[in-house]
Amino acid sequence: MKIFVSSQNVPIGYTVPPFPSLYWPLGPTSSDFQSSYLYYSFDIWKFTVFWSLILFGGFYLTAGLLAVFNQISNNYRHKISNPISKGTILGCIVLVSMYLLLGLAQGFICGAIIGLLLSAIYKAGSLNMSTWIPFCWGIAEILFNVCCSYSTSSVIL
What we know:
Layout: H1 31-35, E1 37-38, H2 41-77, H3 86-124, E2 129-130, H4 132-148, H5 153-156
Antiparallel strand pairs: 1-2
């Protein structure tokens, strides 16, 4: 029985869990519970960046699709003739791809910075990290992004 588990004491035969590895801990003796920890800094950084990219990409893709839908429905509301032409379709594709590209860039930058901070904090405390922590930080990044997108963000924060 170990009293203190630290990142300096990586278990023998440890392998990095596959990417999502979001387990549902039914008890401390479950094998999934014991094998879903991150011990190395690069793995912590990698999981945080992957979750940030997934969440930011999905969020910005949805925002881009909503913007295109709003633009097309605006053309129909104002009775603009032939609102969907080759230029409009190309513009819609460019708009959605720009939203997605900028969201992925922002997700990578945020995930990389937070991943480095998390790995430094957990290494300084000699702790191992659950695979849920990078996922939760990805959600926190998205929620912070939503809160800062409003003009009254100083009141919210």
